[in-house]
Structures are given as C-alpha cells and as structure tokens.
Amino acid sequence: MKTYEERCADVTAKITKLKKRKRNRQIAIFSGCLCLVAALVLVLFWPLDTGAPNVSRYADSSYYSLIQRINEATYVKPRYKNNFEKLTEQFVRYDFSGGAMGPPVMNAPAEDALNGSAGGTYVEVTDNQVAGVIEADIVKRSDRYIFHLYGKELRIYSIAGENSKLVTNFALEDSEETVWYDAPEMYLSQDCRTVYVIRSGSWKTAERVNAFVSVLALDVSDVTAVKTKEQVFMTGNYLSSRMVGNDLLLMGQYQIRQGVDFSDESTFLPMVGTRDQMQPVAAEDIYAPEELTTTRYTVVCKLDGENLAVKDSAAFLSYSQELYVSAETIYATRTYTEQTDTGSRTMTHITALGYAAEGLEHKGSIAIAGTVKNQYSLDEFEGVLRVVTSTTETITGSDGDNAWGKTKRNVNLTCIDLQTMEVLAQVEAFAPEGETAESVRFDGDKAYVCTAEVITLKDPVYFFDLSDLGNITWKDTGTIDGYSSSLVNFRDGYLLGIGYNGNRDLKIEIYDQVTDGVESVCAYERGAIFSEEYKSYLIDRENGLIGLAVRDYSEKDYRYVLLMFDGYGLRQLAEVPICVERPQDVRAVLIDGWLYILAKDFNLQKVW
Range of 56's domain? Predict the structure, then answer.
C-alpha cells in the first residue's frame, strides 16, 4: 500500500499530465485557427486575375485577329482587386428595397379606277441629295398611283384629281415573336411593279432579343392584290439606304454586347441573309481602325433589286455616325476624341467604300478635325470630297490662369483628294468663336454654310468659291436672327432656308445669290411647331413651292401650309387641317393643281 506521499505524487503527476494534454490541445486549436485565418486572408486578399479571357482556342478562325481585339474591347475589368473587395462590393450594391440589382438594360436605343395594273411611269417625289441616287421615303409615286407607307400599312391611292381615292390598304405581316419599331421607309422600283419596305425590328428568342433590319419586297403589279415576294434581313438597327439603278444599298448599325460567345458568330459579327440562312460578313470585308472607340459596326449590304439576293456586304468596326452616298461611293464616318498637348479635340474618321462595281471595294480613309452634322455636310465633286465640320477643342492646362477647362468651338471646311485620301485645301475656324455648322449646301464649285451659336440665335451665312482649291475665297454675307436647320438650292438661283427666327419660331427665308454672296429677299415667320426632317418638306423648284406641316403654339391640331415664292415674296396658297401625331410623318405631292396630303388621313386640296 502506497504511502501518503506516494499517493500525492501520483495525483500531482496525473494533474500535470492532464494540464499538458489540455495545453497541447489548446496549442493545436490555436495553430489550426491561425492556419484557417492565414488561408482566409490568402483567399480574400490574393490578387485576382483581371486580364481578359484567353481566346487562343479560336486561333484557327479567320476572324481570330478580330476576336482578339473584340475580346479586349468588350472585357470589363472588375472594380475590385481581390475577393474581399468583391464581397464588400456585392454587400454595398445589395438592393435593400427588396429586389436584386440586375445588369443594365441595353436599348436598341391602305374601286380601282385603272383596272388594277400598276406599271406606269416612275415619278420622283423625294428631293434626293445626289442625282440618280434615290433615297428612301414614306411616299413614292408613279403617274397613276401614290404609294404611302403609314405605320404597318401600305396605302395605295389613285391619281384622278377630285375622284382620287384609296385603292388598297395592305397590312404588313406581323408575328407574335417579332416586335416592329416605327418609322419604316420604302422604295418603288423604276418599273413601278415592286415596293421595297424597310423596317427595324427584333426577334424574341429564349436566349436573347435580336435586333434586325428587314427589307420586304411587295409585288404591286396589281394594286388591288398586293403580294409578298422576297424578304431579307440584316442584324442590327437601321441607319440609311439608297437605291441606284436596280441595286439597293442597305446600311445599318450592329452593336456588340458584353458576354460575347466567340463560338457563336452571331454574337459578335453582323449577319445578312434570309431568316433561316443568315451569314456573317466575311473577315476580309471587315475594316477596323487601330484603336477601337466603340464596339459598334456600320454595316453595308448590296442587294439585287430583282430578287433581294446579297451581292456583297462589308462592315466598319467602331463606326456609328453619319453616312453620305455619292454616285459611286459610300462614306462612313466615326467620331472620336484625340488627346493634344493642351487637352483634347474631336475628330472624324472618314472611310470610303466603292459600290459601282459588282461588289464593294474599300478605297481608303482619312481623319480630320471636328464632327459632321448630317449627310449634307459632305459632298463629292470632280474627284474631291468636301466636308464641313464643327470643331471642339478642350484645353485642360495652360500657362494662362483662365485657360483651364476652356472649350473652343468653330467650323472648318476641308477638301480631300479621293485618289490619295489626303487634304488638298482647308479653311479653318472661319466662323466666330463658339459657333457650329447648322446647315450646309454645296452647289457645284460653290458652298453655303449657315453657322450659329444656338444660345444667341444669330445666323451668319458664309459663301465659298471652290473653283480654285489653291485659292479658296469666302465671305460672311451677313448676320440674321435665328438659324436655318435646312439650306437648299431653290428656283432661279435662289437659296431656301428653313429653321428658326430669334424667338425660336418657324422661319422660312429666301436668299438671293448675288455676286458677293447671298442676301435675304423675304421671309415667312410663324409661332409654330414644325419638323426639322428635310424629307418631310415639299420642295417644288419649278413652281417655287414650299410645303410643310405646322402646329401653332396656341392650337392642338396640325395644319398643312403651302407657300409659293413669286420672285418677290412668299405667298400662302393653302392651309389645310390635317390629322397627324408628328409633323415629320406628313408628306404632300402636287399633281395637276391638286395637293395630295398624306398623313394619318388622306386630304385633297385644289390649289389652282
């Protein structure tokens, strides 16, 4: 039997052993916690890979170089550098109102008096910018019928004076999976037997919404029995179009969105063709600048008017602005910002695409300072492209105390040799500081430019003599109140300006082209709302007529006003109440003294 001392020693040993085990267990737990904390720190704070995804698996694709550039341009680097920032970012972005914060929504943004036979002779009613290059409109006509496109209807009216009437109201096809946008346009073939309807729309699928442009050919050889012929599609949104001879030039814009699947060409390439046989633009027909400023294409498709077969297609990546079409060339533009030693300035890159041959041919490009307002700011004449641009330069630093953040605006006229795509001549900053180009009109070797500082509503009209590009002469022909949004050649050497006076009211003004420039002859002014869309105006140079829809500020309804310039002043010939929601949706045609007004309703007015 152990002694008391031995038993105490055994107890002390057991206690010591138990404490040691406990201490070892605590050390193990603490060490484990340290390891977990270290691992958590590594997981949370280890730098994430923020580079664009690897696309080397597409190296065999003919679009590989394009895929690489699009991959870099569409990849959005995360705002966080590690998982900790990512988690806290998600917590901060949580919508405490009860809903999840989803990704941003991307907007894509009518008794046949003539036995039913169409045929007849084509009569142009659209005031086209270039002779022989027909522009789309919502009204076209032959010598026997007027074709009016209103919303989802094609209305056909007989031309028979007071006996004129609606012959056919043809509803354009629709479907549950298709959403059509407004503002359709159309063409009438030269033999007056086919109407081409151009519309923007979108297809709804389980995966996504696909925007597209549709060209629908309608057989109107029998106007009492309109039939669908062919239809072709181009992905994207509608920009513009032209018809030259029997060829239809279709121009659109295709936006590449985030989340591109490079195994699916339709997610990053514009497609053209029938609904069940869409084909991408060929890799060799896609042009891109060295630096991509947007992921939008301008797409050009050349169609055969006989059967809408695709003759050729081309695309310009990072292009999205104005288009000008001459007799043989399409000019696509894009705007970007260029950094300078003192700040930045706006630039326009212009690329030429020839279409006169069977296919489309890239003919070169050039960058010039400023931005173009619309197609009328460009003009091709005798191998020279003339361009009027509004320039903007921002100065972010200077020795002068007042130069920081200063913005300078002015107007340039640039002449480009189309053989070399180099500048031949240029007139820079010819307007007062702060003004921009509001309307431009070229007339052979002459040019007229209306500039304005819209805030002050003062409108200088500049006259340019471009007959000798080595010695361009120009002058300010005087300042008037307001500014012209449209400036056009009119009868007997006069110019017509449509725009605003100093009170922001409608002003229609006639200018006389005198030896030294232009001077105002007369003006029609009215406190009314009107359309700035040039196609909505009736311009009859032979008879000196101007027609447009207006709504007086104090009235609810629109009226169609027809004016005549008699060489001395503007005289009102007619004012007809009309039913329409927007003034740009109204068209009118004068035939044998009868004014046919096409709006929501049909109106007929005897003028003389």
Answer: 4-93
